[in-house]
Amino acid sequence: MRKPFLSHLGHSVLLALSLLLLAGCNKTSDETGSETVEAPSEEPTLELLTSENVVAKLEEFGKNNPDSLAVIGTRHGEIKVRLYKETPLHRANFVRLAKAGFYDQGEFYRVVKGFAIQGGDSDDRTMKQGAYKIPQEFNPKYIHKRGALAMARYGDDRNPEKESSSHNFYIVTGEPVDKEQLLAFEQKHGIDYTPEQEKIYLSVGGEPGLDTEYTVFGEVVEGMDVVEKIEQEPVDASEWPRQVVKHTIKVVNE
């Protein structure tokens, strides 16, 4: 079973310290140490990465696979995301898992209205990816605006370097914040938002409390209406959708 996440605290100053975006901890989690069901021999397999080889392997894969667009398919429709080349390890990892079919065994398994939808994992997955995390790639150009694509991670107590999960991702659905809230986040995280970034947070929305805490590596370019439909899914007390929202992820040409 997946372990529960810490509670979501809305737009409080403590948001980034206690939020959903810990890596999904089901039986395929990259730190539980438990084993998954063995995949059938005909199923595609991935080379299992480790903390020792992850950077070299992703750098090599990224050079040979410069793709930067992917489509997330769900029963509500498709979401097209653009992956940032300035976060090369995260881009390469997402493309690698998508091309291998790993994400086709996943689902959106946590939904917090007005905050984010989180996916990438599933209790039914058979494909393994290895026990590794991705070094953080914070970039001041990329903020947690509404529609941002970012990678989940374990909390600071067990992950002080803020390394990302190997596979759990989320899409931000945050609402507009006010000027006072934004200034508080700037002071807390030592950020100086550009006028354009400030305008986005004040008018469009997002989750500034997550900036410098989680790596943003892409954004939704089409299908935010689909994200909103997933956001409206009825959930249980643990914020799991009552009806499974499976997803597939395909890399597409520019």
From TrEMBL:
Keywords: Isomerase, Rotamase, Signal. The keyword Transmembrane does not apply. Residues 1-23 form the signal peptide. It comes from the Bacteria. InterPro entries: Cyclophilin-like_dom_sf, Cyclophilin-type_PPIase_dom, Cyclophilin_A-like. Its EC number is 5.2.1.8. Residues 68-245 form the PPIase cyclophilin-type domain. It is an enzyme of class 5 (isomerase). GO terms for molecular function: peptidyl-prolyl cis-trans isomerase activity. The keyword S-adenosyl-L-methionine does not apply. This is peptidylprolyl isomerase. It comes from Pontibacter chinhatensis.
